[in-house]
């Protein structure tokens, strides 16, 4: 089957020594014993292009985009209050508009988690709770520490909750299993983190829950249950078989054949890439999350400046494998027997620090301070 990844030769100077090993016959993940590649490339880019640091900082446009999408979702939700839930107009509106809008809000919260909407960290925390409202269920407060740990401890087993567990990979290692995962992946991303490690419960979590419950209560008591059903259905579809949901799989699953050929105890001379970018039109709806290598290299660069970063440091990105279609990513993930939940790069905790100092929490967002509760 044709791969969704456009591959190219990785430049020798950017390669990190890598060993692909199987821990056991039941564990088929790619295990590496080096640090993750993004901080190393970040330092190389800053050395070659010191002006890149000027791209960091909040993007004022973000708050207006969020306000517009929140208004759109509330308008659609209220407009459907007299429409039967089990009707084609209700479902199509939820899929075509609602799922796209709520995926946009998922990724707005992702941007805001890096302090990229306002200069004030607290203003970002509160605005994330506001952006959370049309999603129907509270999650913005919990998302931030789990996501920043994903950056700081990329691929680290037991810390990076973006990684599928061995149980998931084992039981869903089939066409039907992968189809099930893609259909319900929003539930995996919502529930898995809590099973991997527990966050400290803070006043921000309490505020997030209270604000969401109050919003849902007012919506239902004023307009009935259907608007809330629309919002929650939109959130489910946003993380299901929807083109924009392809980014969940595209970002870190390994698709390219050279990497797949190394699965098992074989050794190779070039690294299996851990992050893949996508440069297609759906970035317009998703805060440029497709520029994922660029984002992991510079988490404090907002969505509007990631294309500028790409052009400025193009020699570092031009030869990296990238995806050409999120829809094709989902299709290939389900149908290709050689691709599945095992196709992720993992490392033990020490692997993130081999030869280099690890990520500082101050590097994970604009105006970030250390000591973020729940970040490991």
Class per helix and strand makeup: mainly alpha
Supply the number of helical segments: 16
List unreliable stretches of 5+ residues: 7-22, 259-270
Strand order of the largest sheet: 1-6-5
Strand content: under 5%
Largest sheet: 3 strands, mixed
Shape field: globular
pLDDT averaged over residues? 87
Count of strand segments: 7
Roughly how much helix do the residues carry, as a percent range?
40-55%
Compressed to H and E, one letter per element, the order equals EEEHHHHHHHHHHHHEEHHHEHE
Describe the structure in brief.
The protein has 376 residues and is mostly helical. The chain contains 16 helices and 7 strands. The model is unreliable at 7-22 and 259-270 (pLDDT under 50).
Would you give an account of this structure?
The chain is mainly alpha-helical. The chain contains 16 helices and 7 strands. The strands form 3 sheets. The chain has a 3-stranded mixed beta sheet.
Distinctive features:
single chain, 376 residues, mainly alpha, three-stranded mixed sheet, 48% helix, globular
Q: Which secondary structure elements does this structure contain, and how are they paired or packed?
A:
Layout: E1 5-6, E2 18-19, E3 30-31, H1 38-48, H2 61-79, H3 88-113, H4 121-132, H5 140-152, H6 166-171, H7 175-183, H8 185-196, H9 203-223, H10 226-238, H11 246-250, H12 257-261, E4 267-268, E5 277-278, H13 292-297, H14 306-312, H15 314-317, E6 322-323, H16 326-335, E7 345-346
Parallel strand pairs: 3-7, 5-6
Antiparallel strand pairs: 1-6, 2-4
Helix pairs in contact: 2-3, 2-10, 3-4, 3-10, 4-9, 7-16
